């Protein structure tokens, strides 16, 4: 080392000694995690306090009627007990045995399941096709279509039922007029509701028309999450349009499709207002589904306990679908 190097380095700088921890600072350090933990616990309880009013409202609106329905299903409550306030006699499982032993109940159940399956199949099929079509449309066309779907979705059920009732009118209906122009004038004056199969066709159109907007908007939102890079890579590798959809698009949208289909099963199984309004508030026995059958037994036959038992059986039939829906939610991470 030269003299120049020694001058450049200079004298060594003394290093200050490490401060010794005092008793006060150590106590503060020990209390800090405790304070943070206490604050964290208060923060964790905040979401539960925020949803508490909603839980109380749901309990008041749903739990009491559900409990009352369960109790009535094990009683024999008629018009006398309803108006006089006298306690209804307990009959145990007699209402359930009478219902399950009635062939009419099984025919109504079969009719409900078939009607639900057709409505769900058409709703999901058409909804998926329209959602896929929206990906190919320009921005302004897609915006106009979205506004039209939301407008149709927001239309009150009574207004929609009145429109479809007018379209299927035997004398002035648009459906008969269009068919008569193609087939012949024999269709003018045709009553669609004389044949239950044709009548359920009109009801199915109303149910599907009202359900498609929700399915389209939800599935299109799921389609926007499909990576375009994967679809382009599959196309470059020579995959067909069906292959791209099957191996790239479908795995991404499958959880959403399953949840929407499950909700459609629950909704279409409980269809009531569409049939009730299209049949002029007096649906024939051939048009009864489980909801209408329960209403008929409870209010037209004044057997409130039997109607409650049918409603409870309907809830039990749908409980499996509800459990499957919750499992799908948990799989997709929406429920922790």
What does this protein look like?
Helix content is 75%, strand content 0%. It is mostly helical and 336 residues long. It has 14 helices and no strands. It is globular, with a radius of gyration of 32 Å. Residues 1-11 and 23-28 have low confidence and may be disordered. The termini are far apart. It has helices at 3-9, 23-73, 79-84, 94-100, 103-136, 139-154, 157-167, 174-182, 196-223, 228-236, 241-269, 273-278, 290-300, 304-331.
In whole angstroms, the N-to-C terminal distance is: 69 Å
Outline type: globular
- How much strand? under 5%
Largest sheet: none
Number of distinct beta strands: 0
Uncertain segments are 1-11, 23-28
Order of H and E elements: HHHHHHHHHHHHHH
Q: What is the rounded Rg?
A: 32 Å
Helices and strands: which structural class?
mainly alpha
Q: Helical proportion?
A: over 70%
- How confident overall, as mean pLDDT? 83
Put simply, the count of helices is 14
For the structure shown, list the relevant keywords.
single chain; 336 residues; 14 helices
Task: Describe the structure concisely for a colleague.
The protein is an all-alpha fold and 336 residues long. The chain is 75% helix and 0% strand.
């Amino acid at each position: 080392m030269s003299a120049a190097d020694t001058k450049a380095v200079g004298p060594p700088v003394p290093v200050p000694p490490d401060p010794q921890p005092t008793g006060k600072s150590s106590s503060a350090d020990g209390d800090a995690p405790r304070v943070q933990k206490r604050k964290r616990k208060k923060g964790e309880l905040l979401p539960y306090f925020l949803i508490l009013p909603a839980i109380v409202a749901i309990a008041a609106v749903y739990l009491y009627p559900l409990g009352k329905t369960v109790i009535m299903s094990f009683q024999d409550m008629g018009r006398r007990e309803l108006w006089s306030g006298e306690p209804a006699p307990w009959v145990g499982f007699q209402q359930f045995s009478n219902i399950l032993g009635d062939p009419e109940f099984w025919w109504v159940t079969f009719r409900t399941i078939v009607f639900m399956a057709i409505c769900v199949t058409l709703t999901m099929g058409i909804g998926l096709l329209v959602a896929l079509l929206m990906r190919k449309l320009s921005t302004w066309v897609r915006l106009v279509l979205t506004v039209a779907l939301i407008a149709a979705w927001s239309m009150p059920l009574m207004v929609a039922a009145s429109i479809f009732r007018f379209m299927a009118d035997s004398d002035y209906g648009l459906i008969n007029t269009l068919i008569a122009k193609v087939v012949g004038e024999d269709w003018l004056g045709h009553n669609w509701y004389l044949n239950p199969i044709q009548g359920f066709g009109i009801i199915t159109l109303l149910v599907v028309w009202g359900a498609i907007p929700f399915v389209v908007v939800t599935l299109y939102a799921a389609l926007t999450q499909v990576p375009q890079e994967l679809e382009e890579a599959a196309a470059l590798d020579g995959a067909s349009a069906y292959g791209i959809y099957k191996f790239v698009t479908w795995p991404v949208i499958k959880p959403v499709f399953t949840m929407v289909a499950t909700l459609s099963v629950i909704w279409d199984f409980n269809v009531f207002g569409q049939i009730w309004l299209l049949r002029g508030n007096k649906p024939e026995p051939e048009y009864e589904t489980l909801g209408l059958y329960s209403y008929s037994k409870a209010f037209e036959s004044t057997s409130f306990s039997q109607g409650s038992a049918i409603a409870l059986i309907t809830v039990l039939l749908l409980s499996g679908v509800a459990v499957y829906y919750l499992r799908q939610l948990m799989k997709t991470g929406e429920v922790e």
